[in-house]
UniProtKB/TrEMBL annotation:
One of its GO terms (biological process) is 'de novo' AMP biosynthetic process. SMART domains: ADSL_C. One of its GO terms (cellular component) is cytosol. This is Adenylosuccinate lyase. It catalyses: (2S)-2-[5-amino-1-(5-phospho-beta-D-ribosyl)imidazole-4-carboxamido]succinate = 5-amino-1-(5-phospho-beta-D-ribosyl)imidazole-4-carboxamide + fumarate; N(6)-(1,2-dicarboxyethyl)-AMP = fumarate + AMP. Residues 349-429 form the Adenylosuccinate lyase C-terminal domain. Keywords: Lyase, Purine biosynthesis. It comes from the Bacteria. GO terms for molecular function: (S)-2-(5-amino-1-(5-phospho-D-ribosyl)imidazole-4-carboxamido) succinate lyase (fumarate-forming) activity; N6-(1,2-dicarboxyethyl)AMP AMP-lyase (fumarate-forming) activity. Belongs to the lyase 1 family. Adenylosuccinate lyase subfamily. It comes from Furfurilactobacillus rossiae DSM 15814. Pathway: Purine metabolism; IMP biosynthesis via de novo pathway; 5-amino-1-(5-phospho-D-ribosyl)imidazole-4-carboxamide from 5-amino-1-(5-phospho-D-ribosyl)imidazole-4-carboxylate: step 2/2; Purine metabolism; AMP biosynthesis via de novo pathway; AMP from IMP: step 2/2. InterPro entries: AdenyloSucc_lyase_C (IPR019468), Fumarase/histidase_N (IPR024083), Fumarate_lyase_CS (IPR020557), Fumarate_lyase_fam (IPR000362), Fumarate_lyase_N (IPR022761), L-Aspartase-like (IPR008948), Pur_lyase (IPR004769).
Amino acid sequence: MIDRYVRPEMGQIWSQKNKLQQWLKVEVAACQAWANLGKIPQADVDALREHAVINVDRMQEIEAETHHDVVAFTRMLSESLGDERKWVHYGLTSTDVVDTAQALQLKDANALLMTDLQTLQDTLVQQAKRYRHTVMMGRTHGIQAEPMSFGVKLARWVDEINRDITRLQAVTDEMAVGELSGAVGTFANIPPQVEQDVCDQLGLRPQPVTSQVLPRDLHAHYLSVLALIATSLENFATEIRGLQRTEIGEVAEPFSVGQKGSSAMPHKHNPIGSENITGLARVIRGHMITAFEDVSLWHERDISHSSAERIILPDTTELLDYMLNRFNRIMTNLVVNEDRMIHNIESSGGLVFSQQLLLALIDKDISRETAYDHVQQLAQQAMTTNKTFQQLAMASTFVNQYLTPAEVTAVFDVQRHLRYVDEIFKRVGIE
């Protein structure tokens, strides 16, 4: 991933040095497990643990000759060891180390992502509370529908993030698995006890059945969850983009001192953060497709998945970490124009209360069809004349047959649309 979208802590997890440190952790754990079975002298394990040195540059030199990264790794380690070097990689095959170590990297990456999600959850909860009773226009099909609370819109986002947290926790648990089962998964040269011992040391579970690799449906599911989280962010960001349009102007991303919106037009304040999140969500969904295509491997394994995963696993976690943090900054500093929200409701001339008038007439024992047709006629008149819907309703002979002036006025009370805000918040768990 390009540096522009990598935050340091997540980038460190996927650094070459850290990857090799995780490989070494698996190798040492395997030797310790062998020692626990009496196969390897404990003194040799202690020496290996103390003396093994990772030299990234030296490994690259060896790999240039061997064209095999794990062979280069084991030989690089051996150069820093004495007689204990013979136990490095004992009974193991490459993916025993690579997949198990990668599970450790993913475990660390997921811990960061979970923190990111919980931070965003807290921000959204606070903003939902702040705007709990802030009335705005609700829209369907991009058209004004009925008034609603901006807080309820944000509560809906909280609810979605809650589901994302549940999904991430479940898939994190699912991915916390290792395997040390040998060349084709039969434990021919390494007993299951070693695998169990290594996984216990590393805080993982043994995958019940493997070939030479962990089954890649695990990774496909994992990437699909991350893609769904990214899509949640795109969902929210798209709404901010829409509400920031000049013609609506109800919310806006923060715009810092010295920031420029356009190289040509000095007046521009563009929703660049939300647009950035939208674009990166597309990239992550593309990675999800690659992960699904990685599931089908030849027989017990091939490496068609390997090259792809070297890209999609680091890049997806790094991108999502970046997106979550950027969107949290947007939401923390979101500019909310409450006056413009009221203005946009009033600009309809009361049309957005048409359903309330319809229901008020039905409550007077008028058939729905008759009431609907009369209310629609009034709405059409409001759209084609300079009179508001409320004025036309107050003057309507048909309406006045059934509703008193006070009852008509009550139809246009915006507070009706906020009656159940607190109940909605309780459903989401926001007190």
